[in-house]
Amino acid sequence: MRATIAVMAKQNEHGRLIAAAAKAALAPLGCKRKGQSRLWYSDQRFWVISIEFQPSAWSKGSYLNVGATWLWHARPGFGFDMGYRVADFVPFENADQFGPSVAGMAARAAKEVIALRERFRSVADVYRYLVPLATSDGWRLYHAAVAAGLVGDVDTAHRLFQQFEAWAVSPQWQTKLQTECVKLAGLLNEPIIYRSAVLDIIEQRRQLIGLPSDPYCLGELDSTI
Questions:
Q1: Considering the entire predicted model, what is its pTM?
Q2: What is the per-residue pLDDT across 51-94, written as a single tens digit (0 to 9) for each?
Q3: Where are the alpha helices (DSSP H) in the chain?
Q4: Which residue, of 97, 119, 141, is where some domain finishes?
Q5: Which residues contact 56 (CB under 8 A, 6 or more apart)?
Q6: Quick one: 74 and 162 in the same domain?
Q7: Is residue 129 packed enough to be buried (19+ CB in 10 Å), middle (13-18) or exposed (0-12)?
Q8: Which one of 22, 29, 97, 133 is most buried, by most CB atoms within 10 A?
Q9: Quick one: 58 and 145 in the same domain?
Q10: Between vectors from CA 217 to CA 177 and to CA 130, what angle results, nearest 5°?
Q11: Rg (CA), the chain
């Protein structure tokens, strides 16, 4: 029995090193760990920074993925709407080798969190980032359209929502989202009602990913260019 416990502890040694390094680098920034997973996150109210110490299917160790998730689409899970891989795989060979490597990886994650917070201080910052990228069908159209509506760029929001609505779709989730686009587009000329509708979507997403309700989120959304 003791031998089995020792083997299990040895097998999970790299996991404990990752958790300790992540806690040391990210907890002081207010980031939280998702349960006992390798995912950490920073709650930015209408968006989330996801920090994933991604395992490999082939060997012990970790990749590092960091990016932003805009919360104005109600679905389970975190994910990466911008950003992703910021550090390649670091293999676990032994604690002496892996400990310093994963500490450096966690420090890199902390720098990425700080940079993303600085880059996207407001909805207007998100809008300025997203709209130039909305040049083809897909998620970029939707996210840019929502952001444009929030900052009062109604013409751009209408145009992008219409492009998204025209996107050829087949999965049920795409059809459902296009229906949501039609609804939001119809509210663009009523900014208070539009922001309230987006807030409802954000609150749904927060609930789906286990974040608490945020009564101050609407103030964050009431942003100008």
A1: 0.88
A2: 999 988 788 889 999 999 999 999 999 989 999 999 889 889 89
A3: 2-11, 13-26, 95-119, 123-130, 139-150, 154-165, 172-185, 191-208, 217-221
A4: 119
A5: 62, 63, 89
A6: no
A7: middle
A8: 22
A9: no
A10: 50
A11: 20
